[in-house]
Target: GNAT superfamily N-acetyltransferase
Amino acid sequence: MSWMSAEQAAAWHAVVAASIGHDLPGESAPTPEQVHARLTTAAPDGRRLFWLAAEDDGAVVGVAGLRLFTEQGRDHLAELELHVHPDRRRRGVGSHLLTTAIFAVQVERRRGLLTSAVADGPGDAFCAARGFLRHLTLSHVLLDLAGADDSAADASHPGYERIAEIESVNAEDDARVLAVNRRLGFLPYRRTHEYRLDVTP
Model:
């Protein structure tokens, strides 16, 4: 589907919230309003397709979203988001959604499917078992602002913008970047793997 009702968006949010709550305890899931806005607003850099997997009683147990990039240089790619409710995993729901998404990617004549997964999590194993190739690792660092002295941030610093989070590429392999992050008070809190699957028929 390329359009989603409010009820379907709510079901999507429930699956995503349960998935994130299980796989990333302590991390906040997107709000229902954020999910509804993302699912019902046109993407500026591509078209979107959605699938919901439901049981016989209508309960939605898995969701998948596909972004088909339209910008030049990336119009041969698609990006996948896939979540399965923790209570319904290992029953083929994720595999079925992935197969459906791959078929759609091929119909759209895209050559590559991109996705990401938290390192060492269920999604990481799912991707590795289904032929995705890891091409990038992102190390995320976080600064706890609760006890930080931000008085200097009130001063004018031309050319700089105050931010709360920095994302570094392969920071664990770059001792100099890690050292700078630590001196600034940033601490590693999560690693994600970026994957690509060749879907050329």
The longest helix spans residues 6-23. The mean pLDDT is 84. The CA atoms of residues 21 and 185 lie 27 Å apart.
